[in-house]
Design brief:
Largest sheet of chain A: 8 strands, antiparallel
Radius of gyration of chain A: 23 Å
Helix content of chain A: 25-40%
Oligomer: homodimer
Shape of chain A: globular
Number of helices of chain A: 18
Strand content of chain A: 15-25%
């Protein structure tokens, strides 16, 4: 039987076994699943599966596995590395796996298709906090966020997705269901499979539900916007705040002058909170779950930083609206880069102390490659995670500029590796960085990952083009 | 070539390639490695390897792997499930892998042969805390503790070993070296192999070094000993303390009356801190890294518990010596059981709320099996982890009593599984519970673990008789 005949047979079988509203071949329905918002990938799929239960996922995977037919898995379609876009495979969307299964004092069990923002709001309405927070939270699904071990702006206090998940339910490549939901507090009966599935980008199993930790809501939160002269002072500011607010520092973001210029130019109702502009800005938040004298200590810290010329100026948000305005300056950076033409992106991390070194070296290197390009290095200062996005030179042809993508990646990643960093800090590998990973990854780690993939998905039916 | 000839050849090769002081065949030197303190297992080994570096471990494993010769791996030889005792395999001890490699503000990198107590003291002398604490800390090695994901009395606040480790160095079955020491704060380049190696009981790799988190030292610590009427009130006490001291509760141990009777009878300088004895006791500690009004809130909480008849009496340690005395009552339980004859042991966990139910059912069941046996259920109330150890009836023949081991295990484990618990909470599986695991483990989890083992150690040379 040819591949095409085999695929047709499987499609027929899937359509028979699943309810009519759990699949579609309609081009219009499929269309939004085959492109993504950055428009870097366009895909195709002969069939879209929209399972409504773990059982339906299991049934579908069992059939695909029997007949060696691969699946691409998609959550909220907000991924930045192309892993969610099928190239001829059957597409399985977790969108309708969206039940809330359990809600208790310290955790919630939700299905993988639930939207992050829904979960934040659910926790909030129960007087709890689910801390993961990132720009795409209105569309990103919990399953996708788990599969890519998502980060965001609160990692400095709460960790990444792997740190926020207690248990997992997942359909494995043979269609069996692994379940570690409601784990015991202590259970030493073998390997940590839960953690193995998190961050595996859907290559070892399809996450269908997870148990998420919830946290006490802070009773106080203070937001600061600082103006600084240079990168070394940004680092020093982080160190001093981290020292003073070890547990309270919940957000610390680096913003270059150029980024704010774009934001204030292109995004409505955004303005610089200072009268004079500076080369660098740092946005930070501290929060506390009890009534410690947070504000006093922040004001004292700011005073010391000013006296020692570590910062030039500081604005403290006095109202909720002021806080929102300051946060919006940071959150609008990616959007504000769009009207400036093409942007070549890097999601990298280095040891925190080497951030100034990295930005200096990488800036020099990309300006050498493409004179007048405009580096916009911003992001998570407290995690060593910089989004080193480079806007094209004004007036250059966008497509010509974007043709440098791989070349610029190589140059920037060379610096990252030299500094002991990672070429994917929080977005994952997907399709975009697969080649780079094969080249840059420690060979022992890479070989071990390949062995595990082969062992758990010998027919390579789960996201076969992703990661490895 | 016969197996014996093959083994002889490998032994010759190992002796040639390793320095003279990195191996031994001397019977007297080998002897203490072949028995263990509980005297449940006695082993044999044709050769003892005592590597002094990761490189030596790698060399040895490479040779063994080439020739399909299995290794048993031993840390401090304090394991309670027999995994460390060789039965004819070459024995590799990590005892001399004992260098401190790095010490910084938030972590330390130590080799796997370092003794836990040494590491606690090292952290302490740097004004930091390494919180793992258990009875065998004077002998247990970091590598063994990592491989068994050890728990102990501070899990309620700090988690088990997997929660305390940031990075790992390990020699894999083919002799290659996996290294995740000094990890970046964010690195999304694939599977979480670090967590997979922790708790794998040496079946996927030999841990040679780890990076451990260190914590701020508490500036206050309060120790309480409570007397209670029944198990439901013990549980209620836990709930109230956990609610009041979510982050501060650092130890909460359940102690039955019978256990304290044994301790005060057999252990010098131990006496009951109350004038009248009660059926149950709870030992607990709260600690804080800042100057919160800890003592006041504890005294208030105790007052409420007394007023509501949840506790009968309470003793608060006023001096360091008083604290030590109270802790010693708990720590001496296992030792004090020895003079009472044979003890059949269970290291189980159940959801915390089901502890009273478990103890009631299990007590009834074992008393039905062996009338007049003396159950001593003690341990980690805040983790749902009870050491359900059963002393023999007075006057019964010890060996006859111990012949009931498997039968009693089955009966107790049946109750554990029915209540959604685990047959190994913190000691691991080793040899002791291998059959029970095969029978009781979720088959999907078990099959997945087997696939991973086969993929990463296809020749089954690492601890081949352990776990699976």
């Amino acid at each position: 039987m040819s591949n095409i005949e085999n695929l047709r047979k499987v499609i027929t079988e899937l359509k028979e076994i699943l309810p009519n509203n759990s699949w579609s071949e309609n081009k219009e329905i499929l269309s939004p699943y085959l492109t993504e918002w950055r428009d870097r990938w366009r895909g195709q799929a002969p069939l879209l599966l929209l399972p409504k239960s773990t059982r339906e996922v299991s049934l579908a995977v069992k059939i695909c596995n029997q007949h060696n037919v691969p699946l691409t898995i998609q959550g909220g379609n907000t991924g930045l590395v192309g892993g969610q876009i099928p190239q001829g495979e059957i597409l399985l969307s977790t969108k309708y796996l969206n039940q809330i299964r359990q809600l208790n004092e310290f955790s919630l069990i939700v299905e993988s298709g639930c939207i992050l923002q829904t979960i934040q709001e659910l926790a909030d309405s129960n007087n709890k906090l689910f801390p993961l927070s990132l720009a795409s939270q209105g569309s990103a699904t919990i399953g996708g966020l788990c599969s890519t071990n998502a980060g965001g702006v609160h990692v400095v206090r709460y960790g990444s997705m792997r740190d926020l998940v207690i248990g997992v339910e997942a359909v494995l490549a043979d269609g069996t269901i692994f379940n570690s939901l409601n784990p015991l507090k202590k259970d030493n009966t073998g390997y940590n499979l839960t953690s193995l599935l998190l961050g595996a980008e859907g290559t070892l199993g399809i996450i269908t539900a997870v148990q998420l930790k919830t946290y006490q809501k802070p009773v106080q939160q203070e937001t600061l916007f600082l103006a600084l002269d240079n990168l070394d002072n940004c680092l020093e500011t982080y160190k001093i705040f981290k020292q003073t607010f070890t547990h309270e520092l919940s957000l610390i973001e680096l913003i270059p002058s150029e980024a704010l210029k774009f934001v204030t130019e292109h995004i409505p109702k955004c303005s610089l909170p200072f009268t004079v502009s500076s080369p660098w800005y740092v946005l930070l938040q501290c929060e506390s779950t009890h009534n410690a004298p947070l504000l006093n200590i922040i004001e004292e810290t700011v005073k010391v930083l000013l006296e020692n010329n570590i910062i030039i100026d500081a604005v403290l948000a006095k109202t909720i609206q002021q806080t929102k305005n300051l946060i919006k300056l940071r959150e609008s950076i990616s959007e504000a880069q769009k009207p400036q033409g093409g942007s070549i992106k890097h999601d990298i991390s280095v040891p925190i102390g080497l951030i100034p070194e990295f930005i200096t070296q990488a800036t020099k290197a990309v300006e050498m490659l493409i004179p007048n390009c405009r580096p916009i290095p911003f992001g998570h200062l407290g995690d060593g995670n910089i989004h080193f996005n480079v806007s094209q030179p004004q007036g250059m042809d966008k497509n010509e500029y974007l043709s440098y993508w791989k070349k610029m990646n190589r140059i920037v990643h060379d610096i990252v590796i030299k500094l002991g960093g990672s070429i994917s800090a929080e977005h994952g590998i997907g399709i975009l960085k697969k080649e780079e990973l094969a080249k840059r990854c420690d060979p022992v780690k890479y070989a071990t990952m390949k062995s595990i993939k082969l062992a758990l998905d010998p027919k390579k039916i789960l996201n076969p083009r992703v990661l490895l």
